[in-house]
Amino acid sequence: MCTGKCSRFVAVTLYPLVVISIICNIVLFFPDGDVTYAKDGHITAEVKYMGGLIGGGVMVLLPALYIHLTGKQGCCGNRCGMFLSIAFAAVGVAGALYSLIVAALGLQNGPLCKTVLVWTTPFKELTGDNNYLQNDKLWSLCTEPKNIVQFNLGLFGTLLATSCLQVILCAIQMINGLFGCLCGTCNKEAQIA
User: Fold this and answer.
1) How many domains does the chain have?
2) Of 14, 27, 45, 132, which has the most beta carbons under 10 Å away?
């Protein structure tokens, strides 16, 4: 596969992953579909870090746009453009890693929820067999918002998977950019000359 075609493939694949990351992060602000939790500050701390919006969203979208341009014929489809795509892909890796770390912490610490009368993160200190990820009977400790554990698991799990794919794709583009920089992008114009 030509390095230009590979760049286009990577960019086109990154676009839906960026959208998924942004949507997941925004939805995490509204547990149970209610805005009152966000207004009252009863949101899990990892949601406020906005890993999906900033890391997996903006920090991956900008490299995806540039990487897409490097795959097209013209001024950006040259060795210099491929060299710059390495730097942009590195920014994408950094953003995706930020999203991955925030999502992993969100899963490890568990949601902020109301337990009897107090808002707390009841699963933060639990380890081993008492881990809420392995023992779903502990989920009943959270009384409000309704189904917050499943809500956080689904969205943070999606962010984790999405950011893993983003890291892989941006790393592939870094390698592809290196080959494109050293060997050229194999555009049709370059093949004729």
Assistant:
1) 1
2) 14
